[in-house]
Amino acid sequence: MRIKSTIMAVCALAIIACEKPPETQAPVEVKTPPAAREVQKTASNFPAPSTLDSILEAQSEEVKARYAFRRPSQTLSFFGIEPGMTVVEALPGGGWYTKLLLPLLGEQGMLVGSDYPLDLWPKFGFLSEEQLQEKQTWSSDWPKQAEGWGIANSAKIAAFNFGAMPSDMAASADAVLFIRALHNLARFNDDGGFLDASLADAYKVLKPGGIVGVVQHEARENMPDEWAKGNNGYLKKAYVIEKMQAAGFELVAQSSINENPQDMPSETDIVWRLSPSLSTSKEDPELRAAIEKIGESHRMTLKFQKPE
After folding, report:
1. What is the pLDDT of residues 271-302, one digit of tens each?
2. 93: region left, alpha or beta (phi > 0 left; psi from -120 to 50 alpha)
3. Residue 120 within a domain
């Protein structure tokens, strides 16, 4: 049990890429929100410095290797992300999606990074005092880091921590993206209300009619609720929808683009056993080969809207 706990803690912040793409997967629209159409219409008034396809084509081979798993073109298009928008990206990490969003949003747009609440970080139990101290200045340090990438035609950049959203950002964003970012918020929600506080900030930062895009490791509904509370990386779709609706959002669409039927974890499995982390098989080539055949995690893809 101690070994498994250590693995889970070390891997808790791993950024897991998307799964092996199914052969045919079309978005399933729940309804087409008029407000979402209006947001996209407004954004399209700004000429795009480059299309999403050209941005993806310009990336390094290392980045392109992730496309089959993260499906950025289908995912961003499904959420309706367009040039000129203001987008909040939850837990941007090293910037894999950020480096796509900055040129896509363009000089007329803005990208706002949003990290976990500051009070959440000590709860992981493995960050050093120096690392925890660095988190205190993340909201001012991260924009400088992102600007240092030197991306041409970049959107403006800002940042804040969930739980401490600046009041002047209220009703300023067209979209908030939670891409594999909800499980640790849910994991500690009973001990600090971190998911509830973060969703409240997402609601406040959005304009009326704004969109929340969710991509999250999905637990099947037959799995025990206790197993699917975020500790193992997975959440149930019903739980995510319930929490989003409790925060005031409406579910407007869902898609199968990030599902992976090969990922069928047992109650002793964690999401970080899969690629690219491979946390449980690094010293076992045979087990690693078997796990790599699974691909990456089974994920829900949900689109919500803040009512007008």
Report:
1. 999 998 999 999 999 999 999 999 999 999 99
2. left
3. yes
Chain centroid to CA 255: how far? 15
Q: What are the two backbone dihedrals, phi and then psi, of residue 75, each rounded to the nearest 5 degrees?
A: -70, -50
Torsion of CA 291, 295, 296, 302, to 10 degrees: -140
Name the pTM for this structure. Answer: 0.83
Give the DSSP H/E element, type plus range, for residue 6. Answer: helix 2-11
Looking at residue 257, its pLDDT comes to: 95
**Bridge partners, 111 (sequence order):** 87, 157
In a domain, residue 276? The reply is no
Asked if residue 95 lies in contact with residue 150, where contact means CB atoms within 8 angstroms, the answer is no
Any domain includes 148? yes
Q: CB–CB of 40/82 below 8 Å?
A: yes
CATH of residue 145: 3.40.50.150
Q: How far apart are CA 181 and CA 188, in angstroms?
A: 13
